[in-house]
From TrEMBL, chain A:
It is a multi-pass membrane protein. InterPro entries: MetI-like (IPR000515), MetI-like_sf (IPR035906). The chain crosses the membrane at residues 12-32, 106-128, 140-160, 236-258, 278-301. This is ABC transporter permease.
UniProtKB/TrEMBL annotation, chain B:
The keyword tRNA-binding does not apply. Residues 8-254, 278-517 form the ABC transporter domain. SMART domains: AAA. The keyword Flavoprotein does not apply. It is a peripheral membrane protein. Pfam families: ABC_tran, oligo_HPY. It comes from the Bacteria. This is ABC transporter ATP-binding protein. Belongs to the ABC transporter superfamily. It is found in: Cell inner membrane.
Length: 320, 536
């Protein structure tokens, strides 16, 4: 019962965070000098008079009072309507619908790959038979986190596409096209996760219960997979939640290198054109990504760590 | 004298850590149905021997000499795979600290089941039945419910029962119990030891009990080995060892163990009519709806020691915090030297905290690891006294002399000195402020008996010379008996007993105190034949 309560509280908190993100971005975008209407229609070649521009402005933003606009926008958003892009003159929803799947695919595949790397590194560093091999695996996270994303991206294209010709970069389907960029993003995300997991494993290994399990006659592998690893993943999950949000909100570099038309590209264009409605929508999607990932982690952690499950259990404790 | 074959046979064992010998020339044999106690203080090598038997020494350890065989099979020559079939199957291991020896993520039933899964071909349902039976066997009344409970839902004593169930699940020939009860309250301690005795009798296992507690060993073991600096100082049957100890080290251990003698008779130091140094009246503290301390009252006369005894969860810590004025009570009062501490001005508070010093339990963690001993003791001197460097230097030397510490320790760091020395530094630091009252929280609990005895001597000496008042909080009755003039026994936040200490120890009034006193180990008369206890 109390775990439902916990979930409820987490959910309400997530909604509040989203509302806060919306409010802050809305007023920040309002405060920006100039607006998209100016950027697009001030061009002398179009020959529009100030009155006509003002009429355009009314057309795009509805009403003039910021508070009324705020209420209007939030209501529209709740209905899934993000307004119109001033730059392109199409509904923002259409733009998002085209860009989001690309970014989401990249994020999900990159994220899963990063988890795979993390587990492989942790397993190798703990279970490989020779000490030098284990040490080599332990060194991987430090090495990977030193490589910037734009460099590893270009490197991966060079090697896998141009030299080895394993995968083309252009003219591929939506899923094949995602493999290389996902590989590139997964490395810098896996590095800190793996580092954290290795540290945590080292700490868990020192706990008395691990020795107690060895005295039962469990093998090295069995102790690692059944006891050490599950007891070490919690902090790593928290970090993974943050990285997933990052993947959705910060895809600009990867999308630029690999020429993908995702949210990153959309954000870049919207910023240069001061396209407020698009920016607002992009920020909300990014925020939703962060919040959803963290909500998922918060709900997942009690499943892995029973002592965090409920405080009610403490009261059942009775003398022996 | 024993015609049976030994279960465990260790011969001329030598182990070193990074080239430094930890144990040398250890030979011992254990027999079915008998308990052998391995006694030693910290650093004596007793845990090293236990880990060597089960072949789980840390990588820095090296076997330099000797062999270990179990029922004729050499453990020192066994392969890792071979060892995994012996651990848990033929050797059961009961670890030291029940609170951290179970996987916090798994229900306890599953953790008992694991040992069956590893060593038998039982089906899932059979394993479950076996585990439920084991849970019942170690004294759980609702095995079904316990099966699916997590470690954090069980008390320390219950966790130790679970660990015992794991160790005895497959009726191993040898049971190694590594300080099985040192982390438990005294009433729970005797229940667990009774359980171990019962299981040993039923299964005929041979038990190797590793302990620092002579009193526990005397009650429970047939044979004893006393270890000192990694060598055997004495080996004998328990009865002979206690009746006529041959080695000087054993005699010293016996003399220093508080359980074997009561306080040297001192005249009662009650001076009636004097204003009490501390007066606690009807004190009640609650956290939310939970009452931690309820209606506690006691007086402490100047120059005397008031002992506060309580098991874990009794409200000792809350009481201490309240006594220092760190938390406010719901009702009741605390007067120190006649002043109400909850209505004092901040200047008065500063003065009181200087007169009343709190000294903590853990020797190492209560001293700042980044400061030298000199800086640690100098800090209160700087804070409280305006005098210059030369004065501080003299005072520093005086303080060190008071607590019998050599001057050359001044430039060391806390991690470089022993636990007993740390406690002396903590005392010197507390005395630097020239207090009249010391509040000592489990002050000697983490120390070995010989060190403990020296620190207790030092405390009495300081009390006499400086006319100090002590509040001495401990879970250890034998220690408190040595030092306390008056006594409060608390349980679940309520005062079970209050009065003259010797009086309470001789004629306890409350049933709880009686149980508490009966469960102090070391009182059973028949050392050679541990008594049979069927209840638990």
């Amino acid at each position: 019962m109390s775990s439902f309560r916990h979930a409820g509280i987490q959910f309400i908190r997530a909604i509040l965070i989203l509302w806060g993100a919306f409010t802050v971005t809305f007023f920040l975008l309002q405060m920006m000098p100039g607006d998209a209407v100016m950027v697009r229609f001030m061009d002398p070649e179009l020959g529009l008079s100030p009155d006509q521009i003002e009429a355009m402005r009314v057309l795009y933003s509805g009403s003039s009072s910021p508070v009324l606009q705020y209420c209007h926008t939030i209501l529209r958003m709740l209905h899934g309507d993000f307004g119109y892009s001033v730059q392109l003159g199409v509904p923002v929803r259409t733009l998002i619908a085209a860009a989001l799947p690309v970014t989401l695919r990249l994020a999900v595949v990159g994220f899963i790959l990063s988890l795979v790397w993390t587990l492989l590194i942790a397993t190798g560093a703990s279970l490989l038979p020779a000490r030098p091999l284990r040490q080599a695996f332990q060194a991987i996270p430090g090495f990977w986190s030193a490589i910037p994303l734009y460099w590893s991206g270009i490197f991966i294209i060079q090697i896998l596409s141009f030299k080895l010709r394993l995968l083309p970069v252009v003219g591929v389907g939506p899923w094949e096209g995602i493999i290389l960029p996902a590989l590139a993003v997964s490395l810098p995300i896996a590095a800190p996760q793996a580092k954290l997991l290795l540290q945590q494993i080292e700490e868990t290994e020192r706990l008395p219960f691990v020795m107690a399990i060895r005295t039962k006659g469990a093998s090295q592998e069995s102790v690692f997979f059944r006891h050490i690893l599950p007891n070490s993943v919690t902090p790593c999950l928290t970090m993974a939640g943050l990285s997933f949000g990052e993947l959705i909100a910060g895809a600009i570099v990867t999308e630029t290198i690999f020429g993908l038309n995702g949210l990153g590209r959309l954000t870049r264009d919207a910023v240069s054109g001061q396209d407020v409605a698009v920016l607002q929508a992009v920020v909300m999607i990014g925020a939703t990504g962060f919040v959803a990932a963290n909500l998922a982690v918060d709900l997942l952690i009690p499943l892995i760590n029973p002592s965090l499950r409920s405080s009610a259990a403490w009261k059942e404790k009775s003398g022996s | 004298m024993n015609t049976q074959h030994p279960v465990l046979d260790i011969s001329h064992l030598g182990i070193s850590y990074d080239g430094k010998p930890a144990v040398e020339n250890i030979s011992l044999q254990t027999f079915p149905g008998r308990t052998m106690a391995l006694i030693g203080e910290s650093g004596s090598g007793k845990s090293t021997i236990a880990k060597a038997i089960i072949q789980l020494l840390p990588p820095s350890a090296r076997l330099t000499h000797g062999t270990i065989t179990l029922n004729g099979i050499s453990l020192t020559d066994a392969t890792p795979r071979g060892l995994n079939t012996i651990r848990g199957r033929q050797i059961g291991f009961i670890p030291q600290d029940p609170s951290s020896s179970l996987d916090p993520r798994l229900p306890v039933g599953r953790q008992i089941e694991e040992v069956l899964r590893l060593h038998t071909s039982q089906s899932r349902a059979e394993r479950r039945g076996h585990v439920l039976h084991l849970l019942e066997h170690v004294g759980f009344s609702e095995p079904e419910r316990r099966f699916s409970q997590f470690p954090h839902e069980l008390s320390g004593g219950m966790k130790q029962r679970v660990l015992i169930a794991i160790a005895v699940a497959l009726a191993p020939a040898l049971l190694i119990a590594d300080e099985p009860t040192s982390a438990l309250d005294v009433t729970i301690q005797s229940q667990i030891l009774d359980l171990l005795d019962r299981l040993r009798e039923e299964s005929g296992s041979s038990v190797l009990m590793i302990t620092h507690d002579l009193a526990v060993a005397r009650d429970r073991a047939h044979d004893m080995i006393v270890l000192q600096h990694g060598r055997i100082a004495e080996q004998n049957t328990t009865r002979s060892l206690f009746e006529s100890p041959r080695s000087s080290y054993t005699r010293k251990l016996l003399a220093d163990s508080p359980a074997f003698h009561s306080r040297p008779a001192t005249p009662a130091r009650f001076v009636s009519g004097m204003r009490p140094a501390i007066q606690v009246k009807d004190l009640t503290v609650a956290y939310g709806s939970q009452t931690a301390v309820s209606h506690l009252s006691f007086d402490v006369q100047p120059g005397t020691t008031h002992g506060i005894i309580g098991e874990s969860g009794s409200g000792k810590t809350t009481l201490l915090r309240c006594l220092m004025g760190l938390i406010s009570p719901q009702s009741g009062s605390v007067h120190v030297n006649g002043k109400d501490i909850f209505s004092e001005t901040s200047a008065e508070r500063r003065q009181r905290l200087r007169n009343m010093q709190l000294v903590y339990q853990n020797p190492w963690s209560s001293l700042d690891p980044r400061l030298t001993i000199r800086r640690i003791i100098e800090e209160p001197l700087r804070n409280y006294f305006p005098e210059g460097q030369a004065w501080r230097q003299t005072r520093l030397h005086e303080l060190l002399e008071r607590v019998h510490l050599p001057l050359h320790l001044l430039e060391r760091y806390p991690s470089e000195i022993s636990g007993g020395q740390c406690q002396r530094v903590a005392l010197a630091r507390a005395l630097a402020a020239q207090p009249d009252i010391l509040v000592l929280d489990e002050f000697v609990s983490a120390l070995d008996v010989t060190v403990q005895a020296r620190i207790l001597e030092l405390l009495s000496e300081l009390q006499k010379e400086l006319d100090l008042t002590f509040v001495f909080v401990s879970h250890d009755l034998a220690v408190v008996r040595q030092i306390a003039d008056t006594l409060s026994i608390i349980r679940y936040g309520k005062q079970e007993e209050y009065g003259d200490a010797e009086q309470i120890f001789r004629k306890p009034a409350s049933p709880y105190t009686q149980t508490l006193l009966q469960t102090i180990p070391g009182q059973k008369q028949n050392g050679n034949q541990p008594q049979k206890f069927l209840g638990s």
